[in-house]
Fold each of these.
Amino acid sequence: MCGIVGLFLKDATLEPHLGALLTDMLITMTDRGPDSAGIAIYGRPTPGRAKLTVQSARPDRDFPNLADDLSRAIAATVTAEIKDTHIVLDVPTDEIDAARGALRGLRPEARVMSAGTGIEIYKEVGLPRDVAARFDLAQMTGTHGIGHTRMATESAVTTLGAHPFSTGPDQCLVHNGSLSNHNTVRRTLRAAGMTFETENDTEVAAAFLSHKLHEGAALGDAMAATLTDLDGFFTFVVGTRNGFGVVRDPIACKPAVMAETDRYVAFGSEYRAMVGLPGIDAARVWEPEPATVYFWER
Amino acid sequence: MQTFDLAAQGLRALNATLHGLRGQTNQTAWDVVNPRGAHSIAVGLDAPVDVTVHGSTGYYCAGMNKQATVRIKGSAGPGVAENMMSGSVIIDGDASQYAGATGNGGLLVIKGNASSRCGISMKGIEIVVHGNIGHMSAFMAQSGTLVVLGNAGEALGDSLYEARLFVRGAVKSLGADCIEKEMRPEHLALLADLLARGEAGDLAKPEEFRRYGSARKLYTFNIDNAASY
């Protein structure tokens, strides 16, 4: 069991409240996943700039002077904002791969949670309420976001085993369920050049999608391919820089509810995750069909 | 009329209050407000009372119901009316997975759509769905009646025992050992009665339905196959 929440805003006047709305949704799903929690939030990009969100088990050691060190290494302006165990490094878009490479040498034990022009990912072990407070998620703004509360079944309860997983630029995926052929798929993807940080089944699903997108597939087609190539139970919610998608396996035993108004599209593992959203009483509420891809792009 | 504010008073207080209604009570009508998708609302009732939930519910609403009438003015989460024994549950909106699962008796009416596994392992319950039902509905259904005014998803009635299934629309596929059967006068009479009780008398006519049931090849012990068991 795990909990998933997601919110894709159509009405820009809600953007200042995205973090607060998602935080309430996430905390409501604590019963479904008290082990760890995470959130991917997409802000409006700044032209020419990109963000690396980096996590460290030793922020006191790894984060001081990191922006300056990185700035020297890539010979470009880097600014940083520290949030508990995570640091968001703002770098020139053209230098993001160089910054990522330099980071490995400068802080070998720090892990990149996400990279892209809009995405930031925060995740930690602990109750969703505590995780949200550590990163002050309620204050965040943005256009869309995805959250996850985890009850671990397939791999250890660690920060890196928490969701969302990001395996491509501005991409993320969260999962309720378990995959049975993830080792086979991981081997295939490794041979195709993808890299993995964990033994987690969900990371394989994220990398599978990233690989398809990298090959040029549209988001909807990449999501449809999970239905034929991944074996197991899943409800996936995925995010891209301008999109938000949902797909469930054909058996569809992992719950899912969606709501849409002219202001937003929302996802919840349960309806109660969405009861605090504005205008929910008048929303179109439905259960996504099995083996059917839903996505919204702006 | 009694009103119970679930958000203010809490789930345990609601169910304890409703469980306290035994035999003859004057408090026969209850309004539950602010359900906010909570789980296990009005489960285990055992009194001839009428409970109306004003909003959508989470898992297992009206589970194990006996005697009571529970109305949901919204949609219901997974397992609504699971293992109902008697009484009735009426849902204005949709129902999620395994609505009416293992129900022994009573009447479940879903005015919207039901998703997968509706009536799974039903054992005597009557279910009337005004909309469509999802895949694997009536899986291993033992007895009782399922009436669907819309369409049915994949593998309807897989491994069916003696439950009766009536579908007005299309059936995407039949499960193992489930076959179409002829509609006889007694089935039309049964449907007319159930449609009326299921608040669907004006929505459909008995002649518009097709009947499905067990071919009885899967579950019947056959002495000729003893070596295979």
Amino acid sequence: MIQVKNMTFSYNGQDEAIKNVSFSIEKGHFVSIVGHNGSGKSTLAKLLVGLLKPTSGSLSIDDLDYQDHNMVDIRKKVGIVFQNPDNQFVGVTVRHDIAFGLENQQLEPSIMEEKVHYYASLVGMENFLEKEPHQLSGGQKQRVAIASALAMEQEIIIFDEATSMLDPKGVKDMMETIINIHKQFKKTIIMITHDLRQAGYTDDMLIMKDGTLIAQGTPSTLFQDVKLLRSTQLLLPFELELYEKAKELNMNEKVIHALWAYNSKT
Amino acid sequence: MNNMTIGQYIPGNSWLHQLDPRVKMMSLIMLLISIFLIPIQGNQVDLYMLAGYLLLTILLIMSSQIPILKVLQGLRPILFLLTFIVLIQILIVAPNEKVALTQPVTFYLSWSSISALLVWFIFYQWSKKWVRFKTLYFLFSVIMVFFLQYILPFGNVFDYEVILYEETVLRALFIFFRIVIIIMLTSLLTFTTMTTDINDGLEGILLPLKWMKVPVDVLAMMVSLTLRYIPTLLIETDKIMKAQASRGVDFKEASLKEKVTQVISLLIPVFVISFKRAEDLANAMEVRGYVIGQKRTKIDVLKIKYTDFISLFMVILIMSLTIYQVFFT
Amino acid sequence: MGIQFKDVTFRYKGFKTSYKALDMINLDIAPKGEIIGICGHTGSGKSTLVQHMNGLLQADEGTVSVFDIQLPNKKKIKLNTLRRRVGLVFQFPEYQLFEETILKDVMFGPKNLKMNHASIESISKSSLKAVGIDASLFDQSPFRISGGQMRRVAIAGVLAMQPDILVLDEPTRGLDPVGQKELMEMLYDIHKSQQKTLLIISHDMDILGAYANRIIVMNEGEKMFDGDKDRLFSHPKFDQMNLDYPSSIKVMKHLHKEISLPYKLLYTMDEVISHIKEHIHE
């Protein structure tokens, strides 16, 4: 559904933030894009959502090329939730914020009212509709951001490090919401994260390093590739690191087995 | 801090709350203009007209179910100014027709009275924090100032006579009540209208300017975003103040040069945060389909109802009567 | 010496309500080179607690004693005397940067505290070195470096004031895993080389497990636990504290259950690996 072919991008015309990247994402898949800081994953998010234009190569959704004349249609297909809860909250109240995208779509007020209530309930914010953003926690603001994206009823939603600024409870709530959205609405979800535990929940994982795509596969497959993981410059979660070390040190099979079972569980 | 809301809106169900904000704002402007049209001369008819406006204001306040105390609190900031204006009128301005209401009263600025005034001033500044009804205490203090000048002629340096003339008293009362009415009416607007509605109302009223290529809708969006971010910015500024205080920023102990750097240490972070915010926000708005200048609908619809028509009609009527009375009789 | 809290109660006064952010807190922190972790749910009073330690907030009831200076105090105290001894680094401290150059920004704190003029520059430079900022960056604008570097510069700014106790509110929040590890290692090195007491507020139990010896748990404004981390993680009422175990302990529990590895409270990778090797042979 999303096709990226030989895409290269450079901010200043010299250093390439994205180098000749090609991949495709199937409809309805839950995909994660991981990579160290500076690997290009956030730039990739901005490209996928049309905020940046590739220097060369192509980007398309359902055979619609990311060209200027297509942008209105592309905006109807892709939505995004950014990292900073305060810097994407446009409305004066929760209700106004969820309605913002709908107002841009020129919907009728009565329809907007319905959708606002429906999607606010979905993320558990139906009792907060009149609240102003400074009265909400970071996690609550991010849930409103999710509701706003859902309300626009786009098939694809990108989460650009959307949990990075939250506390553990906020992260947990948000992950649950994202997983539920995927199950319930069968949306295509692209989660950009530096947390491999979160990536573990996804169907498909893309690993970025220094602007290139170095691997794509299911988390299970990729997690068992010790050499690959070592080359990513990522810091692995404790239990995954322990598993990789157990393999490297040739520990007793039952240890490795037990550790893999633990990793699959979490 | 997290519980404050933007603006002064007090929720309620009165007819005033439910009036269309455009009607409310236009009515306010028309009433304010009408009040200013009444001349200050202090002649009987003009006073009756102002009294009429005062009555109207009180009736509006009562029907809005806003506690009168809240409305009066809006006058606190200008209490000093009001007292000053009234005193100037009574003491200094000379009337055209000297119809005296009282016998001349002599006030003395003598060594004894000046020292007493100084003592009272110091006492007042120190004692006012213990007092509950600060406004009354202030007024009492003003009376004391004159009382002391009245009873202490010892060591006279300068004395002056005060006669209360009918004209100056009426004029003072006129100006006083005019200011009071203006402030109460304006407060009433902000108490009964949500800030978002004020913004939408303003946008609605200024919409005709779009024909002159004025980007009214974009300006309204800017106002809306500003309103949304004021509380957030206040909270962030507070955090930065605490962070810099932890780095030794202490206004009381700083030299002037240091104070400048310290103020900069508060301003620059706020600017930096705001610029980053502007960039992120622009991206977020663009992705959500916002295009500057493009038509968009609103979830809050302003609908004119019968009460709006009637209210507007009444206000126009009042304004017309005032204009007729002032200019044509 | 150090910091003592005696029956401290503090209320946030809102519009019409007030609520107790701190309730009868008793605490003793000696400046002898400890690393103390503070954890608890959001709103449990952690940030409020540490703001009493450098005089930003003052108790409504009870007293706080900071290096023998008592708050509240009948005499007017220059709060900067407190801030010289207790350095407080807020969440997202990079937001406090403002000067033209990195070096100037770090020198801001010492200048405000009116430290010895001649030594301010050299102390600032060594603070920057201690946080891993290379001398080539000293004259750069603090806004042209990465977020992680900005955070270090902000921490250097507090270190340069040479506090005896360094308090950090969620120092790793918002950083990626590599950045978090590097920051914690840097803080640990500073702790070791300068023997400073570190107070770290964090939600990350892995970090507290790996670096802290003593952990304070706050809950609804009260101090629920204050003691050795081993005691915390083996506490019978642990499940009621709404806390997570460090990952290392969670793995140990799993291995103990699945392959009968003897259960032990371990916190680092090396410890766990040695333990496994010791008890389970290839």
Amino acid sequence: MTTFLGMPTSPPGVGMLRGKDTFPIAARDALSNTQLRRNIGAATRTIRAKRAAVVGEVPDWEQLRDAGRAIKAATMQDLDEQLERLEAAVIARGGMVHWAGDANEANRIVTDLVRATGSDEVVKVKSMATQEIGLNEALQAAGISAYETDLAELIVQLAEDRPSHILVPAIHFNRAEIREIFLREMRGVDPGLSDNPARLAAAARTYLRRKFLTAKVAVSGANFAVAETGTLAVVESEGNGRMCLTLPDTLVTVMGIEKVIPTWRDLEVFLQLLPRSSTGERMNPYTSMWTGVTPGDGPQSFHLVLLDNGRTAVLADEVGRETLHCIRCSACLNVCPVYERTGGHAYGSVYPGPIGAILSPQLTGVNENPASASLPYASSLCGACYDVCPVKIDIPSILVHLRARHVEEARSEHVLPSAEAVAMAAASWVMSDAGRFERAQRGSRVGRLLSRKGRIGRLPPPLAGWTTARDAPAPPAQTFREWWRSEPR
Amino acid sequence: MRIALFATCLVDTLFPDVGKATVRLLSRLGHTVEFPERQTCCGQMHINTGYQREAMPLIRNYVETFAPYDAIVAPSGSCAGAVRHQHGMVARRAGDEDLARRAETVAAHTYELSELLVDVLGVEDVGAEYPHRVTYHPTCHSLRILRVGDRPLRLLRKVRGIDLVELSDGEVCCGFGGTFALKNADVSTAMLSDKMSNVVQTRAEVCTAGDSSCLMHIGGGLSRLRSGVRTVHLAEILASTGTPA
């Protein structure tokens, strides 16, 4: 087993990749929030059905998935060259390119760029990369106010909460709760606001319109960047992103280095895969693309910040690297039976759900902190995520791989093995020999003493977690192999 | 046909009736079943908990035990899935290319019960009779690793007297997930509670599946709630001839 210690991971103390608590602890809070469970259950059920319907109508869906996977895999093979091509193309069209090794560097670059404009506020396009690095907090510390303009991000920002879904960051709120947040936090809102979705959207529109018309600087992420042409693309539903991308004088785009695709034609594949997988739409309402600076049209100053923040470390892991193929559609969240019950906050990272369980610990380092180390285990390995992934990321296999990395790295770090490691080694020794296995089977028969009518209501640790909610079967008087031997044949 | 039974450690130790049913069923269909006694466990628990190194002796034992056989059957989609999708990969990552190749050869002859019946033995009507209201839970690994599809349902539909009712959200995981059920006991229980609610709503008396592990989890919950629904492995239904054993 190879461990990858050479590549820098995302630095601690900045951004939103690490939870305070391990997943099982954080999940316990979420599971007891009955409102949250109903909200997320209802929302994911709706999106799942929409996705299934629009995916089902594409006859070559499987070929599209294969194509998406192949393009991403090929790009990762020469990512360095693709990024340099992108840089050259962006500069040739009048943009500026900045390389950020980690979250701190990216935050510093963006803060300096905003300061240089003399502005003390920015409008933001919904962006995972800037959430990942905690850009809003960094800007705030520098006296710059960042206004989220994506409706759901705005709700989360006003509520002083954290996003709980990649695509639908406010999925954990229902409309009654959103109305309350608006009444409490939105300056100038109509006190008679109802929880009718159209009314809520209208209130947000009025509030945001003032920001769009006054902001001098916008910050965005990117869904795709075409190396060949230097074109950036943002895919969205509301058009608020387009407002930000076209009205301000200065545009700063922060993009993870894995978002580059080689050619313009490659967009054909991803612009089919993404909307159907994410919102369950045939086509998303707004696809904005821009290439450098166009005199007299749109922002006259464009900066592209290329963010590593642990991605090179992901790339260095032969098994884990396909995590970087992710196009952030969230289909895996919506089908995940774990995510559906815990919501996103339990994952402690801006990337929740199955993709978060493999991406976050790789960006931070699997064993860097207990919360990250718990994420690869936050899955029953049911495989539903793999089936819906538009670029066929084998999430279950990567989860299993990261568990092995966790165990192997712990083995090399600790002098004393954990109780679990001792138990696993013992089980391996017992089960690698039928004679030993049979003696252990006979030993387990002591469990019959705990049973009533063939079931056990309470087991001792480490199996106690089983019997908090389930009975356990009593060991039978005769194992299968004993029966087999006793049968005349 | 001479068929080797891989009982799986769980069935061998805790659910011997499932192994007996598999033997009874295949014998009734005219096949010779052997139980190579040096078998133990496929190693999935180790692999899926991160202990690939500790899984290696179990993989080697599986390969050496079952290499002589042309057809190996496991009454478990999960264990057959581990053999088919993990043995070669784990051996290769441990640097044992020879074992990886041998494991892949044995894996190619390893079948989950419904695969063996439908694909290898070409039978859907196994001559069973089971006069009960039954709902079928398709377990994740048989569904999404082995892709058994509707094979178990095709077998069940041919059972005389059975009242087979559909399970809502059947394809959603029951929450077992091996050591997940212990490491994330609360989430596992939340998933189980939704599965049980769907099972109870079918008003079936029996919930069946092709995996004793998932059934131990679902059945353990149903029993704790005194729900009046019991879990029975697919092999036991297919082996049944209507007369109480």
